């Protein structure tokens, strides 16, 4: 089990996946917070059944999957419903994360969480790592990767914590303004640092 968790964050298109894959190449286990958040409400899950029991079967698409946009709209207009949903899902997400940490066999593991600071997950990890780059590059790379309009990207960026606030909160920062080839060295240095931190955490626990 990995007891030492590094929370990896950054805005949309900042390079989280690219950076996480470099850690994985070094044998480090990855935990994907967004994936877990989707798994706990996937088709046939207890989470989805409880959402339907509370909000009605209108929350289901014809495919039997969660109607995410309807749920988003409903909780946006009703803060108490948002609270109800968080009270349902957060413990489920925490249990699944804990399970994945138990199964992780590397000396530390990386938890990828786009909304690490926004959702308070930074309090649950030992160390925080931000992938940082300018908004301009963020937009350019996201548009190259996804088929989304500039307006959609602007809305997503506006809904996330500002670059400066994230910079002030993170323990460590990877600068991804340059070419991808510049990432490997930064990851290698942090990997050495995390090995040391994880080792000393193990010996003091
Ligand atoms: P995130 O997971 O944070 O949304 P990604 O790792 O998917 O970001 O990176 C966004 C896009 O930018 C991907 O297509 C990726 O291949 C590309 N990319 C990542 N780093 C660089 C870089 N340094 N230079 C150019 N493109 C990059």
Largest sheet composition = 5 strands, parallel
Query: From the helix content, strand content and strand pairing, which structural class follows?
Result: alpha/beta
CATH topology of the largest domain: Rossmann fold
Q: Catalogue the ligands.
A: adenosine-5'-diphosphate
- The residue ranges in which pLDDT falls below 50 over 5 or more consecutive positions are none
In total, the number of strands is: 5
The CATH class of the largest domain is identified as Alpha Beta
Question: What's the pLDDT, averaged over the residues?
Answer: 94
Provide a count of the helices: 9
The geometry reads as: globular
Gyration radius, in Å? 18 Å
């Amino acid at each position: 089990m990995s007891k030492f968790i590094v929370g990896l964050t950054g805005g949309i298109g900042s390079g989280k996946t690219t950076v996480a894959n470099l850690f994985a190449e070094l044998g480090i286990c990855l935990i994907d917070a967004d994936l877990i958040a989707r798994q706990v409400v996937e088709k046939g899950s207890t989470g989805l059944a409880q959402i339907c029991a509370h909000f009605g079967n209108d929350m289901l698409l014809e495919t039997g999957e969660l109607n995410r946009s309807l749920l988003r709209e409903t909780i946006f207009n009703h803060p108490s419903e948002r609270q109800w949903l968080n009270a349902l899902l957060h413990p489920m997400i925490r249990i699944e994360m804990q399970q994945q940490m138990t199964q992780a066999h590397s000396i530390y593991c990386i938890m990828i969480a786009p909304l690490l600071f926004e959702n308070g997950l930074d309090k649950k990890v030992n160390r925080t790592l931000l992938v940082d780059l300018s908004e301009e590059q963020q937009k350019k790379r996201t548009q190259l990767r996804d088929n989304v309009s500039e307006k959609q990207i602007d809305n997503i960026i506006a809904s996330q914590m500002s670059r400066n606030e994230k910079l002030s909160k993170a323990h460590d920062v990877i600068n991804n303004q340059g070419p991808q080839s510049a990432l490997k060295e930064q990851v290698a240095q942090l990997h050495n640092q995390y090995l040391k931190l994880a080792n000393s955490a193990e010996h003091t626990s």
